[in-house]
UniProtKB/TrEMBL annotation:
Disulfide bonds join C30-C62, C95-C109, C111-C116. GO terms for biological process: cellular response to growth factor stimulus. It is an enzyme of class 2 (transferase). Pfam families: Activin_recp, Pkinase. GO terms for molecular function: activin binding; activin receptor activity; ATP binding; metal ion binding. Its EC number is 2.7.11.30. The keyword Nucleotide-binding applies. This is Serine/threonine-protein kinase receptor. It is a single-pass type I membrane protein. The chain crosses the membrane at residues 149-173. InterPro entries: Activin_recp (IPR000472), Kinase-like_dom_sf (IPR011009), Prot_kinase_dom (IPR000719), Ser/Thr_kinase_AS (IPR008271), Snake_toxin-like_sf (IPR045860), TGFB_receptor (IPR000333), Transform_growth_fac-b_typ-2 (IPR017194). It catalyses: L-threonyl-[receptor-protein] + ATP = O-phospho-L-threonyl-[receptor-protein] + ADP + H(+). The gene is LOC105433536. The active site is at D335 (proton acceptor).
Length: 571
């Protein structure tokens, strides 16, 4: 009876665990940790990660990768996060490593269920199959119903225990290799009107790491005589690598304000497998890093803001198919921030990092996607509240909220503000610090309705004041009241056209549409066959959507013309 009392509870626990596992349909949230990022004091190296599911037939899991110090026996966590669909993680509500064999002294476990990887353990089990001695014969006679329950428990629990013990750490990654790597060709260059070189013919030499992020590291690399950028994704972020190349391979994505895509590769096997995304390289780096070390002039700010908004507009818009290219659906970026805006040599901007982007195919729902993704600091109020309407326009408006914050970053480092230029600060850095939690952002943005401070000295320059109006309308608490990307493009472009230099002639339009010049000039130049009146009438019609209520791109009262138009504004 003592043997029966010992074994029976174990079998029933296995039976209950099997039943509960059937109710788990993957992980929506996992605990996130990156030892490398934390060692370099990177922001957001730990916290909660939302698992994005792009294929409804698959599941997400949580995982932990750790090691043990051979001297101190201290457990050292290397990585935690979401893990792509894998059969060996099915039905495992707890993160437990059972393998007795370990490769490179690394331990790995995966599980199903929200935040199931908060706790983890190593419970080694022998790989040999447990024998079935005649233990049952030692049981005392039991009633028929109870005997049936025992038999059912044995039939379910024993196969489950055998399955768990039969898969080692090596087998887990070997199965993962067979399940996913075989379907990926060595090279998948995007088809462009002028195809890029076949990367598979020549090796790419990685030179130095330029940046690190949640989804991998960005390297400066050399391919033949060309300097390129290589974004290296670890194995657990394969889904982001797939999403990025899917976005880049859409029709009409070869755009001057979108980072130029070259190709992809898969390097290495098993635990050392890496996924490469090869793009154009821009020496100036991200807008965030540039603003930390540099200030920008008014023409530079207008150029950056317009090209950035134009790239976002191109991403957001649907483009019908034509003879040269196919149909391009609307795309939401979902992680728009100054870190994901790169600066070219001519100070124009291009948008990068589409690992969280969402494609809106016509006639299809957004899918089983989670809205609370991206960088907490740049999350719109509705994202922080978890109150998103899962429609295309809702996701595009979330991008526009973040666009307003990036405009604020630009304005804070622009030379035309009246007074000293302060050190670069992230949006909400004064309000919530450098490492805000989700609760910090909810309190500041949702409950207090705070926004980054716009200094009065910025308003003294009429052009910068118009940018301030634009950013405020981008980050409006009411999502439906926010400006579209096309409207931001028109507003900033209008500021660039506000000053026309024609034989030292300054031209502007007041609220009566009267054209004021400082001296006589050619009646038609630079407007071609149109008169100046016709030109500005067309511009007003073009900007009708953006010039709303009493808010105007160009102020109606300028004061002395020299106080508004500076030499920096000359085109």
């Amino acid at each position: 009876m003592s043997v029966y009392a010992t074994i029976l509870p174990l079998f029933f626990l296995g039976f209950l665990g099997t039943i509960s596992a059937k109710d788990i349909k993957g992980s929506a949230f996992c605990e996130f940790y990156n030892d490398t990022m934390c060692a370099e004091n990177e922001q957001e190296c730990s916290g909660r990660e939302e698992c994005v599911l792009h294929d409804l037939e698959k599941r997400n899991h949580c995982y932990v990768l750790w090691t043990v110090n051979s001297t101190t026996k201290e457990t050292i966590i290397k990585l935690k996060g979401c893990f792509l669909d894998n059969n060996d993680c099915y039905g495992k509500p707890f993160c437990v490593e059972n393998s007795m064999k370990r490769k490179n002294e690394l331990f790995f476990c995966c599980c199903e269920g929200n935040m199931c990887n908060q706790n983890f353990s190593w419970v080694p089990q022998p790989t040999s199959e447990p024998t079935e001695p005649s233990v049952i014969h030692e049981f005392e006679p039991v009633p028929s119903a109870k005997q049936q329950a025992i038999t059912l428990a044995l039939l379910i629990a024993i196969p489950m225990l055998l399955t768990i013990s039969s898969f080692s750490f090596w087998c887990l990654y070997r199965r993962r290799k067979l399940g996913y790597f075989n379907e990926i060709p060595t090279l998948e260059p995007v088809p462009l009107p002028q195809p890029s070189p076949n990367l598979g013919l020549r090796p790419i030499q990685l030179l130095e790491i330029k940046a690190r992020g949640r989804f991998g590291a960005v390297w400066k690399a050399q391919f033949k005589n060309e300097i390129v950028a290589v974004k290296v994704f670890p194995i657990q972020d394969k889904q982001s690598w797939q999403t990025e190349q899917e976005i880049f391979k859409l029709a009409h994505m070869d755009h001057e304000d979108i980072l130029h895509f070259i190709g992809v590769e898969k390097r290495g096997d098993n635990l050392q497998a890496e996924f490469w995304l090869i793009t154009a390289y821009h020496e100036k780096g991200s807008l965030c890093d540039y603003l930390k070390a540099n200030i920008v002039t008014w023409p530079e700010m207008c150029r950056i803001a317009e090209s950035m908004a134009r790239g976002l507009m191109h991403l957001h818009e649907e483009i019908p198919a034509n003879k040269a290219d196919g149909y391009k659906p609307a795309v939401a970026h979902r992680d728009f921030k100054s870190k994901n805006v790169l600066l070219k040599a001519d100070m124009s901007a291009c948008i990068a990092d589409f690992g969280l982007a969402l494609i809106f195919h016509p006639g299809k729902p957004c899918g089983d996607t989670h809205g609370q993704v991206g960088t907490r600091r740049y999350m719109a109020p509705e994202v922080l509240e978890g109150a998103i309407n899962f429609t295309r326009d809702s996701f595009l408006r979330i991008d526009m909220y973040a666009c307003g914050l990036v405009l604020w970053e630009l304005a804070s480092r622009c030379t035309v503000q009246d007074g000293p230029i302060g050190e670069y600060r992230l949006p909400f850095e004064d309000e919530v610090g450098l490492h805000p939690t989700l609760e910090d952002m909810q309190e500041s943005v949702v409950h207090k309705k705070e926004r980054p401070l716009i200094l009065e000295t910025w308003r003294k320059h009429n052009g910068l004041s118009s940018i301030c109006d634009t950013m405020e309308e981008c980050w409006d608490h009411d999502a439906e009241a926010r400006l579209s990307a096309s409207c931001v493009v028109e507003r900033v472009a209008t500021l660039g056209r506000a000053l026309v230099l024609n034989s030292s002639t300054l031209i502007r339009v007041d609220n009566t549409n009267e054209i004021i010049t400082t001296k006589e000039s050619n009646e038609t130049a630079p407007f071609g066959s149109r008169t100046r009146e016709e030109y500005y009438a067309q511009e007003q019609r073009k900007n009708k959507e953006c010039l709303i209520s009493s808010v105007h791109v160009l102020p109606t009262s300028f004061g002395p013309i020299d106080s508004y138009f500076t030499n920096d504004l000359y085109l």
